Amino acid sequence: MTDVIKTISEVKSRLDDYRRQAGKKVALVPTMGFFHVGHLSLMRTARQDCGLVVVSIFVNPAQFAPTEDLEAYPRDLARDLELAGRENIDLVFSPDPAEMYPEGFDTYIDPSHINDTLCGQGRPGHFRGVATIVAKLFNIISPDRAYFGQKDAQQAAVIRRMVKDLDYDIDIRVCPIVREFDGLAMSSRNAYLTADERAQAPVLHQALLAAREAVAHGERDASKIRRLMRRTIGQNYLVEFEYARIVDPETMESVAVLDREALAAVAATVGKARLIDNLMIAP
Ligand code: AMP
User: Fold this and answer.
1) Domain that holds residue 136
2) How far apart are CA 151 and CA 204, in angstroms?
3) Each residue of 231-251: pLDDT tens digit?
4) Is 126 a catalytic residue?
5) Best CA proximity match to 191, nearest among 77, 72, 15, 48
6) pLDDT of residue 3
């Protein structure tokens, strides 16, 4: 089983020791735990690339609105440590909220423009919380590389932008989406789904495939492709549509005409689970 460290000072001193001893490249994989194969794929890539792999597990209160599922978010630290051990992870950093946000905490990183679309609209304050915690983890761990999933494409774009804007010398790697057998993107929140909801949840992926298919058949009008995705998702009575967009993969700004590669992104609520998915589509 992998060692778990709870305090910032201990994780810093352990990492300093490792760096001095071995001159190894340090990888960071930030997560909220309750591991699935999507998380493990990030760990495996990091393990192949770097001499020392740190995984953080922290359900970050700052990225949840008061109406969201912070309390209910699934957690199982013992199982996660077991799985991290099997992936040969060197260190798991799993601080308590008071360690990361002590009394008096008052400074946040606030992405501006990139926050105005997609999940930023439906979840005000979410990316402020994400950018703040990732910046703190970057400062604590000082990784050479950090690994994120394409599943949270806007999050990856926010982090890439932050790294440029704030001059972090960290290489950001974005790993492909890992899916269930029927196309549903793996997510810790899939645990909320009832059997009926689980049966309808792959419709997000199906809507993205329909978009790709339409583009393959010559459709270039993004508003028509958006409507197609919306119609596909809307056919399922347990699925509450939130958005379907075609955006620039770097800036997340809407694209009107598909004259270059773009990202199709969708979000919907299925029962208690807010689900997101995306797919690159090229003309
Ligand atoms: P989370 O614990 O949900 O915050 O996710 C931690 C990291 O794993 C993030 O960088 C996610 O984008 C990534 N991730 C989550 N689900 C998947 C998936 N199905 N495939 C690939 N990466 C994922």
Assistant:
1) 3-175
2) 12
3) 999 999 999 999 999 999 999
4) no
5) 72
6) 77
